[in-house]
Amino acid sequence: MTLEVRDLHKSFGGVQAVSGVSLSVAAGELLALIGPNGAGKSTCFNMLNGQLRPDRGSVKLRGQEITGLAPRRIWRMGVGRTFQITATFGSMTVLENVQMALLSHARRLYDIWNPVSKQDPARAMALLDRVGMAGQAARPCGVLAYGDLKRVELAVALANDPSLLLMDEPTAGMAPAERVALMELAARIAREGGIAVLFTEHDMDVVFAHADRILVLDRGKPIAEGLPAEVRRDARVREVYLGTGATHGYS
Amino acid sequence: MENLLVQGLSGLATASSLFLVASGLTVIFGVTRIVNFAHGSLYMLGAYLSWTLVTQLPRGHLGFWGGVALAALIVGVVGVLIEVLLLRRIYKAPELFQLLATFGVVLIVQDVALLIWGPQDLLGPRAPGLRGATMVLGVRFPLYELFLIAVGPVVLALLWLLFNRTRWGTLVRAATADREMVGALGVNQRALFTTVFFLGSVLAGLGGALQIPRESVNLQMDLVVIVEAFVVVVVGGLGSLPGAFLAALLIGELQAFGILIFPRITLVLAFLVMAVVLVIRPHGLLGRAPSTAHAAAAPEPPYLPASPWRRWAGLGLLLLAVIVPPFLGDYALIVFTEIAIMMLFAASLHFIMGPGGMASFGHAAYFGFGAYGAALLVRHFAAPMELGLLAAPFMAGLGGLVFGFFCVRLSGVYAAMLTLAFAQIAWSTAFQWVEMTGGDNGILGVWPSAWAQSKLVFYYLSLALCVGAVMLLRRAIFAPFGYALRAGRDSPLRAEAIGMDGFRIRWFAFILAAVAAGIAGGLFAYSKGSVFPTYMSISRSVDGLLMVLLGGVKTVSGPIAGALAYTWLHEQLMRAFDLWRLFLGIIILALVLFFPQGLAGALGRREGRS
């Protein structure tokens, strides 16, 4: 198993945001984490990427304990991630954004002598080529369309040859056609490279089209897990997502 | 015992006065997010105006109290003018720009006050009915001080009522919590900001006006009080009234008892407290992290390698700087040397401000560390210049290592204030540790070695070292390290998510900048032949900021252009006018209002258009 999560708990003040979430993702597998707003998806996610420290539970990456490590250490152990709201370096070009991840991976950040512009761009260009952004390599990130930024983020996330990719709402804020294209791209790269992918997503078309397995959270607790077809039939999931209808006068 | 009681009571009186000034500052900051450097000038104006009014009006209760109240109201109107004419146009500008604009007002008010009231200290009359002293727990204590002790809590209570029992006050509190949301709800923000500014200015004016029976009115009181008010507001938490009150008590008592317990470090004490508080509670005692929910900053422009046009201009300038000086007199050589040194100073500050995105309001500390590093070796070990110039960057780097460790953890206004606090600690150490540093008299006889005695040779030495260091900084900006620094500025989240340790990167940058400033400071010491505490004063830090902002913080060549223009301009103004502060202040305001991108930025725009 690439990622193994056991019994995660997290509360904020009196609110139990996540309680008792366990999951595992194998190499080349796509696991979707879904649930209504406030279900605890983002909290769960942030405990995996190091932004939040769990109250209880353990996170293991390829058998190694990573619980409570800082995000940058988790990245060094081979976890790439994309953000719900894209986070790129706006004052740099697309190419330079990817190069920064490569330079960091090569531990060359404290070099104060060799110009970045003289670095060999081949690897960064190859990564951009994989996400279809090679043509825009020289544009500053600050002026890109949102969908293109998401692609750049994917290229950045792949720069350290991750064994696990964490994608927080990868298609949020994109046009429907772009969503399908981006998720197809991510799924193909993951399966070809044997990368385990954990993603949260609100768009059910995207989830059911690309996830190998789905884990449904509600109010911090897992309520269903399984293949897309199983989850689709699950009565509790339907209830959580669609309601019983009682409040609106249907029966 | 009696002595302690008297000290405790006068500490309370000081606390009240501090609170009056600090409350206005903190209310203004809470709503407008502007750190108003001119708040001390409003305080000073209040003192001068009430002096004039009280001495002109008929004696008696009405004359005194009426004069005080009228002075406070006039200051309120002045505050409104400042808000409407200046600040309203720059609410969206970066915070350092706002700080700088209000500093421009400080300069203007200083010279205007000099013109109207003259340079001599003015003594005000005693307050009618509160002239004598009374017995408090067996100790004689001045009545007026007792009155002041009561003023602080009364004003706090009135402000509390105003903010919690009126619609206007509710709006002010709402705007302090979330300005954008209040705007979205259809509240007239302009009116709100202006009235808040009026209230804050009245409080500052009142604070100043009430001082006249207590101390003489002079032209230095603006900076003295603003620095103390900054400490109080930052310690209490920016925007928090109870915090300001608590901090005013703390600082007031600390100053009163500090004189008894640590007479040698009175100047440092307040800043030490501020530094400790900011390190432990980064947003002050009762402050909260500002809401950043709506902060959608425009992306910073990329740094481009110099265009061929600019490259040639730079080369041409350097060529002139090498060829022309042999034909110049000593005075011009001194100015040229200073320009070279200031270029390095500005470039070192730009390194942390531009790519680093950190606000430093105390960069003069590292300049001063360099100067003192060299001068102390000369004074105590009679070291030669070569050694002194090596010690300068080393000493400054050490200072950057220690201070930077704390400063780079904070951001925005708080970082600016912590750097200011550390610079003031360094300044007051140099000022008060007389055995070591010579105190106010400085260290004299810091002359270059025999081979560099001639002004021309020393100029070439300075030029070589400064240009070399500037080129190295520039190289670092375009190397992976400079990119990593910018990465942390652009998106801390993403930088961390690709393995970057933002704290270590910023810390290293801070040390590099300190080292570069130290080289500049060391050279400056040898060019002047002496070192004084003023090398680390606020005004030198502001000089650095002015150069960087004048040149444009968003371009790499900005600080060079800025240092050149500013040093030359400063020199000309000082020579030509007695009222150079007034002119400098006007130039700053013009710069802030009309060239927010700085000189290099304005030139760049022109290039871009053609």
Automatic annotation (TrEMBL), chain A:
Q: Which Gene3D superfamilies is this protein grouped with?
A: P-loop containing nucleotide triphosphate hydrolases
**Family matches, as InterPro entries:** AAA+_ATPase (IPR003593), ABC_AA/LPS_Transport (IPR051120), ABC_transporter-like_ATP-bd (IPR003439), ABC_transporter-like_CS (IPR017871), BCA_ABC_TP_C (IPR032823), P-loop_NTPase (IPR027417)
Source organism per entry reads: Roseococcus pinisoli
Provide a Gene Ontology MF annotation, just one: ATP binding
List the SUPFAM superfamilies hit by this protein, alphabetically. P-loop containing nucleoside triphosphate hydrolases (SSF52540)
User: Where in the numbering of this chain does the ABC transporter domain appear?
Assistant: 3-244
In Swiss-Prot or TrEMBL terms, this protein is called: ABC transporter ATP-binding protein
What keywords is this UniProt entry annotated with? ATP-binding, Nucleotide-binding, Transport
Question: Which Pfam families does its entry note?
Answer: ABC_tran (PF00005), BCA_ABC_TP_C (PF12399)
Xref: PANTHER family: AMINO ACID ABC TRANSPORTER ATP-BINDING PROTEIN, CONSERVED COMPONENT OF ABC TRANSPORTER FOR NATURAL AMINO ACIDS-RELATED
UniProtKB/TrEMBL annotation, chain B:
The listed locations are: Cell membrane
Listed transmembrane segments: 12-35, 42-58, 64-87, 99-118, 143-163, 223-251, 257-280, 312-328, 388-406, 413-434, 457-485, 505-526, 546-569, 581-603
Would the keyword RNA-binding be found if you checked this record's keyword annotation?
A: no
Which keywords describe this protein according to UniProt?
A: Amino-acid transport, Cell membrane, Membrane, Transmembrane, Transmembrane helix, Transport
Does the entry feature the keyword Endoplasmic reticulum, yes or no?
A: no
Give the similarity note. Answer: Belongs to the binding-protein-dependent transport system permease family. LivHM subfamily.
UniProt name for this protein: ABC transporter permease
Give the source species: Roseococcus pinisoli
Output the lineage of the source organism: Bacteria, Pseudomonadati, Pseudomonadota, Alphaproteobacteria, Acetobacterales
